User: Which sequence fits this backbone?
């Protein structure tokens, strides 16, 4: 059975961090901890492999015990929850999340379900994704929201005929549409040839709290 990269599994999930007010810049030690996640694999369905992956993540989380390590700690907890959900071990190994923030499993499960609703079971994901510009009013008022689009991906991997299928706040639609049109997808192939694919969905998220954190991260020493 094919091994599962935890980071790849989580790549479409929106990371939900703590409030920006208590932000502390990650240092080299915390960045090294977070990079360890790249190396943690497990063989889905292989209980011994799954247990080893969970143990490795628990060890990582236990070492991420400083304010600078909060991102590494939260991501390790999210990874553990993801493994438990994928492998159907949430009840059996609930103790694995004893030290993690309350509601971690529920948060990850909701994001997984949202991803499935938007992208479907066989998603076509962009290889070039452009961040949208924030509307000035949304920044001033501290608004968050998301826009879900449906469109056709051409043989060249370009966007065609995008339409809005869901929007939590129309203030974001215009800028989200501009960003979407610059996305680039790896064309789907049939019999070795690229084909046009209709009914593809994607969402663009405007998370105000995450934007504040991103700006603080940008100002951190590199």
Assistant:
């Amino acid at each position: 059975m094919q091994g599962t990269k935890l980071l790849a599994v989580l790549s479409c999930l929106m990371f939900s961090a703590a409030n920006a007010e208590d932000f502390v810049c990650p240092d080299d030690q915390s960045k090294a901890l977070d990079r360890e996640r790249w190396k943690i694999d497990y063989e889905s369905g292989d209980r011994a492999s799954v247990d080893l992956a969970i143990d490795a993540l628990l060890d990582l989380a236990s070492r991420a015990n400083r304010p600078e390590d909060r991102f590494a700690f939260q991501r390790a907890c999210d990874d553990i929850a993801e493994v438990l959900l994928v492998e159907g071990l949430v009840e059996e190994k609930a103790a694995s999340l004893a030290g993690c923030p309350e509601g971690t499993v529920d948060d990850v499960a909701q994001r997984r379900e949202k991803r499935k609703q938007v992208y479907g079971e066989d998603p076509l994901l962009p290889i070039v994704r452009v961040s949208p510009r924030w509307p000035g009013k949304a920044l001033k008022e501290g608004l968050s929201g998301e826009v879900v689009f449906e469109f056709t991906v051409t043989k060249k991997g370009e966007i065609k005929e995008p339409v809005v299928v869901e929007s939590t706040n129309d203030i974001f639609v215009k800028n989200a549409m501009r960003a979407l049109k610059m996305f680039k997808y790896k064309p789907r192939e049939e019999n070795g040839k690229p084909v046009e694919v209709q009914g593809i969905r994607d969402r663009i998220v405007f998370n105000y709290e995450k934007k504040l954190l991103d700006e603080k991260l940008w100002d951190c020493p590199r």
